[in-house]
Design goal:
By secondary structure, the chain is an alpha/beta fold. The protein has helices at 2-37, 74-84, 87-107, 120-123, 128-139, 160-172, 188-193, 203-206, 213-226, 238-246, 263-271, 279-282, and strands at 40-49, 54-66, 70-72, 113-117, 146-151, 175-181, 198-201, 229-232, 251-252. It has 12 helices and 9 strands.
Length: 288
């Protein structure tokens, strides 16, 4: 009895595994189709400078507009895309669309920079830098208005292609940001050696304020020593915005200002500057 029960249990486990694999394959097929159909597109979230009181940059964040299911967030498709390698094509289409959009906004007199998330897998491709250059040139986009956001895991990567790609894109004038700083296991010596332009302090650190104030102050001091632009992620309240501003963060990003929105809505927000915040929040808009 026990034996057959064990066998049954095993078979059950096996089937669950198979179902999971099947689900993944289905999701991957859907994703490939979505890419072909142009259903993977960027939403935009502002990065606000409390000193100049302007939106200095917008971050492009991938969204899957599913014909039946509606809007699907990255957490549902980025992990599998990373695993399967499809992240290369997803990253590329987001980069292309964001660069085109930035040029369109510039033609309309809105000179905002754009930041795009880049997977370590993309940086491992030998032709990554050349591809980025081709995309910029296709739209006549100023490389200095593009920033690539990469996570801390980059600092542990041994693949020489990564260092070469980073050097090439920086030579073009593109900026490099370390995303989600403070959540991984950073090699601080390497971070200091690496030519980084910007550090984005992860929202888990920002949202732990004021409890972990000392830690965030140390991170900010380190960033100042490195002379990089400091971005505070996950700003959800006026208190967080004020703290980050007071302690020298150069740019603030989070739901307090705006959640990620589609291009048309972002355009409206950019036009409406400095009243960029929703009416309910206008009074609390830092700097006002
Ligand atoms: P990320 O690059 O760190 O982007 C910030 C994430 O935090 C976004 O989630 C954004 O919507 C969310 N966020 C912004 N402000 C707040 C806030 O005040 N509170 C809270 N709770 N969340 C906030 P999203 O759009 O779901 O993206 C999640 C992650 O997926 C991104 O984190 C990034 O790592 C990845 N991702 C998104 N698009 C791409 C892409 O095109 N390529 C790659 N490789 N990764 C992407
Ligand atoms: Mg990011
Ligand atoms: Mg981040
Ligand atoms: Mg994050």
């Amino acid at each position: 009895e026990a034996k057959s029960g064990g066998r049954n249990q095993y078979r059950f486990f096996d089937e669950t595994m198979r179902n999971q694999r099947e689900e993944e394959l289905e999701l991957l097929a859907d994703l490939r189709e979505a890419l072909r159909a142009g259903h993977i597109l960027p939403y935009y979230q502002p990065r606000y400078s409390p000193c100049t009181r302007r939106v200095v940059a917008v971050e492009a964040l991938a969204r899957w507009m599913h014909p039946e299911r509606g809007l699907i967030l990255p957490s549902e498709f980025i992990p599998l895309s990373e695993k399967s390698g499809l992240i290369n094509q997803i990253g590329l289409t987001i980069l292309e669309q964001a660069v085109r959009q930035r040029c369109e906004w510039q033609r309309q007199g809105m000179d905002v920079s754009v930041s795009v998330n880049v997977s370590l897998r993309q940086l491992c491709e030998a032709d990554f830098a050349a591809t980025v250059q081709r995309i910029l040139e296709a739209d006549g986009c100023d490389p200095r208005r593009l920033e690539l956001e990469v996570t801390e895991t980059l600092l542990l990567e041994e693949n020489p292609a990564v260092a070469r790609n980073l050097e090439k894109v920086r030579l073009l004038g593109i900026r490099i940001a370390i995303d989600d700083f403070g959540t991984g296991y950073s090699n601080l010596a390497r971070l200091n050696e690496m030519a980084v332009d910007c550090i984005k302090i992860d929202r888990s650190l920002i949202q732990g304020l004021p409890r972990n104030e000392e830690i965030v102050r140390l991170v900010i001091a380190m960033c100042n020593f490195m002379q990089v632009t400091i971005v505070a992620e996950g700003i959800e309240t006026l208190a967080m915005a004020e703290w980050a501003h007071r302690h020298g963060c150069h740019e603030l990003q989070g739901y307090f200002y705006s959640c990620p929105v589609e291009a048309g809505q972002m355009e409206g927000l950019l036009r409406g500057e400095p009243g960029l915040a929703q009416p309910a929040r206008t009074r609390a808009w830092i700097g006002d």
